[in-house]
Amino acid sequence: MNIFTETEKLAEAQLQEFELAKINYANLKKAAYKTIPIGTYTFELQYNPDRIRSTAANITPRVLQSRKCFLCSENLPAGQKGIPYGQDYNIFVNPYPIFQKHFTVPATTHSPQLIKGRFTDMLALAKDFPAYTIFYNGPRSGASAPDHFHFQMAQRHVMPLEKDIQHGEIVQQGHAYTISTLNNYLRKNILCSSGDCDLLSSLFTHISEILENFIPSCPEPMINLLTWYSEGIWTVAIFPRRELRPWQFFAEGAGKILFSPGCVDFAGLLVTPRKEDFDRYTPALLADLFGQLTLTDATWKNLLPYLQTVHP
Questions:
Q1: pTM higher than 0.85 for the full model?
Q2: Cα separation of 243 and 306, whole Å?
Q3: What's the rounded Cα separation, in Å, for the pair 212 and 218?
């Protein structure tokens, strides 16, 4: 049995035997959705109260040190089971889903959420699971467990980004790779595609080194990262950012908006755990919220010439 089939069987079994997942996946089927068009693109909104645990996560060092890590095998909730992926990872059904098929792929050891040295693992996952998008939230970019390395996997063709990339404008192109970007997207972005794993890894390293000079970069550049594999080509989407949360997240009373986006939100599927936020989002409000987190136009203008000279 190959790893893809084994993972599908794991999901079937867990939705029968793992009570927390069984309840939350059933609740997900009741989630409310709506679409907000912004220019030539759209945001898909999902009202999902079960995700409040992740959206409102307190990730201060004091809290992380005092709580048990929920991605360590010894702390798993009753009934949760997984399967190994290679020697360094396990695959688990995510018990707080955004997608009808949603997995978490944590490292087998308790190690920090840092992509350095693991990008090729991400590409391998995408190739082994072509029906899924693989994503990585940086430690200061939406990860609710920044102290334990993990990827996530979501079924393909749900996040708007995957269809939006057809409108990408080329920034730099070689014989075996392309770097492009989506303009007027509210979230500054860098899109890379190639069928060569080593070349793509080299591109990612060079881009990361460039980003260190333009965005907060301790312990690594603040990014959200997604990839998928189709017809022999990897597509990698990088969303550089300058903040984790907008001022509205910390406001009190009527001004508060529980907006703490990660990869999924930057990819156009905005997950909202509170009904009042789901009802109030407008194009103008989304432009304000994302505008506080993504690169400024001035920073992007200064960054772009460096991306135009990137090569493997």
A1: yes
A2: 22
A3: 9
Order of all β-strands in the sheet with 269-272: 32-38, 41-47, 269-272
User: Which residues is 234 bridged to in the sheet?
Assistant: 194, 229
Q: Name, in order, each residue with C-beta under 8 angstroms of 225's C-beta and a sequence gap of 6 or more.
A: 115, 122, 135, 136, 138, 236, 237, 238, 239, 263
Give the CA-trace dihedral at 230, 232, 136, 2, to 10 degrees.
Answer: 80
Residues 6+ apart with CB under 8 A from 61: none
pLDDT 10s digits, 167-197: 999 999 998 999 999 999 999 999 999 999 9
User: CA-CA distance, 271 to 166, in Å (whole number)?
Assistant: 24
The burial class, CB within 10 Å (0-12 / 13-18 / 19+), for 178 is middle
CB 193 within 8 Å of CB 178: yes
Which of the 8 DSSP states describes residue 209?
Answer: H
Amino acid at 81: K
Are 214 and 115 in contact by the 8 Å Cβ rule? The answer is no
Instruction: Round the average pLDDT of the chain to a whole number and report it.
Output: 94
Q: Which domains does the chain have, with CATH numbers?
A: 3-307 (3.30.428.10)
- The predicted pLDDT at position 54 comes to 63
**Residue 150 phi, psi (nearest 5):** -160, 150
Report yes or no: 221 and 141 within 8 Å, Cβ to Cβ.
no
